[in-house]
Design a protein that fits this description.
The complex is a heterodimer of chains A (105) and B (106). By secondary structure, chain A is mainly beta. Chain A has 1 helix and 5 strands. Chain A has a 5-stranded antiparallel beta sheet with strand order 4-3-2-1-5, with no helix packed on it. Chain B has one domain: SH3 type barrels (Roll), CATH 2.30.30.100. Classes of the chains: A mainly beta (105), B alpha+beta (106).
Amino acid sequence: LKMADEKEAPVALGTTVEEPLDLIRLSLDEKVYVKMRNDREIRGRLHAFDQHLNMVLAQAEETVTTVEMDEESFEQVYRQTKRTIPMVFVRGDCVILVSPPMRGS
Amino acid sequence: TELFSVRQIRKMLFFSFFKTLVGKEVVVELKNDLSICGTLHSVDQYLNMKLLDISVTDPDRFPHMLSVKNCFIRGSVVRYVHLPSEHVDTQLLQDATRKEIAANKK
């Protein structure tokens, strides 16, 4: 069955890194750090992603950072709220960056 | 039934993935912080979702959904979908991802 609208190019499932998405592909089944919009970060094991950076992460720890202003001292208090989600789909339009985890883990 | 071009089929990893979760219970967390628990009834190529028998996980903060049984959620308002890990084949996902990325190379 010939597909009329596309040429079949040879597909190399191998190890060459050409595009930014290939860099992320190297992190499949590894822990990754994801910086997201609204001062959120997630660390988890990357199981799937696509070109929109939609992702599925396992054992994901989300950190939400908020700033509160103390009315008397006018001090800014940074608070971090963490929670763990065993298996999560993350929509790509919230993602800012994806990288190997920064702390030694 | 839906018709897709060859080009479109190559970009449907998560559409196919969510179709395997139809009938399972998920929690959809929206960008406005509302979390909706329900049974996944259907999904489309935009990852719009229809959930049945929904419950809001924090009804004190969001009482306006109390009488709603089913809902349609536009894909673009989703932040997270909490998935049942027992129904997720991580090896299959990884293999499908590798193929999808390779197939989408320019």
